[in-house]
Write a sequence for this structure.
């Protein structure tokens, strides 16, 4: 008789693809399916759901845009019973507010991955305190907390008494994100980008966190220094319209290309010269790992997980957040120094293949699942 597989419910707030969603896609793809059976729950539809359908992974959407949406709790509980879930792995705070109660009602063990804390210094004090209190409550109730970086863990310890977690760094598919992969192709012609353009790329959500407006302002200096410079901005978010408007105000329309969400990230990177991530905060940015795996010189800000990946002028450039002049200076330095670009690119690829492979990440998470279930 075939042994029953361990059914693990991966739950996240939205079905759009961001860092947490990419993490889930990688995890369910590479998890040992002779032992585990993954199923995914989201509260909005989106590209992640489409990707799961393509790969044949069971998934469900219970529509809800709200935290603490009591109307969803019974639906979540019913789904867990229907799917005979053995363990629940929640990704992010918003999902936790609508998942945890049902899981504990059924006596299911819960793993909570903190891809980035819900509290930040730019929030009002009452909002920040309320979010810290909720994070404190939930992290003490789960069977295991996973921090995606040491700095992510430190932030928890600095703000939450007796916070405990296991650090498991995000990993990516280093064969897919490889400049040597024969499937890679340049998209410059498709995107109407001149073959001789020097392309800075930004791939991610156009949100306050990612600071796309700061990047556009910094790029104006670059365009003035070299008219062949081009900024490729890929992604959607609440600042997309503001970004388009800023480009018009700065008369950069011929030098900035906007694209919405795309699944061919590796080809976008293959078509780029330098990758920029000017975030105000991060958990452990998967986009940065992907760019470095593609042997692209990268510029990122000295925040959280980014600082654990990049060693300044060894495998990338680090700048202070919200310093447009530092960002433009780093962009100019890389554009004008081919030797430095090549050195950083080679070291970047080596960093990722040695430390951040998705298989290593997946095996560590599998060990957590089996240890928790054996204890239960």
């Amino acid at each position: 008789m075939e042994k029953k597989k361990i059914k693990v419910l991966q739950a996240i707030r939205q079905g759009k693809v961001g860092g947490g969603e990419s993490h889930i896609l990688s995890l369910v793809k590479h998890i040992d399916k002779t032992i585990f059976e993954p199923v995914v729950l989201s509260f909005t539809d989106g590209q992640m759901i489409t990707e799961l359908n393509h790969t044949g992974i069971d998934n469900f959407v219970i529509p809800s845009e709200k935290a603490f949406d009591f109307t969803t709790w019974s639906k979540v509980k019913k789904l867990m019973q229907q799917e005979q879930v053995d363990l629940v792995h929640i990704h992010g705070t918003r999902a936790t507010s609508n998942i945890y109660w049902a899981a504990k009602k059924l006596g299911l063990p819960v793993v909570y991955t903190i891809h980035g804390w819900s509290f930040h210094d730019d929030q009002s004090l009452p909002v920040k305190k309320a979010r810290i209190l909720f994070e404190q409550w939930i992290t003490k109730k789960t069977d295991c907390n996973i921090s995606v970086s040491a700095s992510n863990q430190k932030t928890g310890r600095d703000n939450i008494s007796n916070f405990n977690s296991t650090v498991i760094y995000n990993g990516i598919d280093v064969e897919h994100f490889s400049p040597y992969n024969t499937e890679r192709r340049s998209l410059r012609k498709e995107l109407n980008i001149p073959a001789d353009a020097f392309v800075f790329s930004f791939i991610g959500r156009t949100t306050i966190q990612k600071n796309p407006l700061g990047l556009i302002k910094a790029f104006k200096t670059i365009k003035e220094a070299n008219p062949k410079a081009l900024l490729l901005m890929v992604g959607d978010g609440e600042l997309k319209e503001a970004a388009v408007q800023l480009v018009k105000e700065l008369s950069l329309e011929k030098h900035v290309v906007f694209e919405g969400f795309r699944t061919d990230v590796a080809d976008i990177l293959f078509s780029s010269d330098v990758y920029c991530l000017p975030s105000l905060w991060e958990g452990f940015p998967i986009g940065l790992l992907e760019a470095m795996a593609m042997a692209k010189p990268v510029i990122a800000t000295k925040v959280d997980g980014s600082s654990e990946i990049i060693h300044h002028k060894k495998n990338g450039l680090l700048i202070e957040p919200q310093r447009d002049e530092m960002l433009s200076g780093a962009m100019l330095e890389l554009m004008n120094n081919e030797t430095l670009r090549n050195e950083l690119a080679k070291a970047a690829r080596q960093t990722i293949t040695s430390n951040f492979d998705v298989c290593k990440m997946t095996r560590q998470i599998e060990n957590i699942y089996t240890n928790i279930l054996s204890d239960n």
In short: The chain has two domains: 6-171+357-375, 198-355.
